[in-house]
Known about the structure:
The protein has helices at residues 35-40, 170-173, and strands at residues 4-8, 15-19, 21-24, 27-30, 49-56, 59-66, 74-80, 82-89, 100-106, 111-115, 119-125, 129-136, 145-147, 167-168. It is mainly beta. The chain has a single domain (4-180), classed as Jelly Rolls (Sandwich), CATH 2.60.120.10.
Amino acid sequence: MSKVKLIETGFDDLFIIETFKIGDSRGYFSETYNYRDLKSLGIDIRFVQDNQSRSMRGVLRGLHYQNAPHAQTKMVRVLSGSILDVVLDLRKHKSTFGKIFQLEMSAEKNQQFLVPKGFAHSFVVLSESAEILYKTDDFHYPELEGGILFNDLDLNIDWKISENQITVSDRDKKHPRLKDANFNF
């Protein structure tokens, strides 16, 4: 029996993954990644890199993507705190192209977010601080990275926090709007 549950999002290949915890008075144990269990559910992805970040309340990272031939699938998990995870479908051949999906995530929910190739990914920290860990199925290639402006008016993203409380890197402030972005999905 699989120890994970896939929740559909209405976007092809974009899933919420729930893992199960076993707890007692000492704390808990949770198997957060098992290739065999995911493969039994139709998810056959080999991850090659883990990335971890810690950010303070209001820090927004994204909307980031990496173009083909090294586009990345990500599996995102919150280790502490809470975030609003936001993805944008950049796959031109999909009916969900240009649409946003949002997921409030926290360490307590024991969820992971499987974001396939062809999505721009971002998050904003809702708690005092948060630590995020995400796996990727390809390595980072700086020459292939891209981004979409987080406050693109055409996207109308509700970040669940006021814009004057958001901290964004200078790099992320310079990303183009969706209609002007360069991506190859």
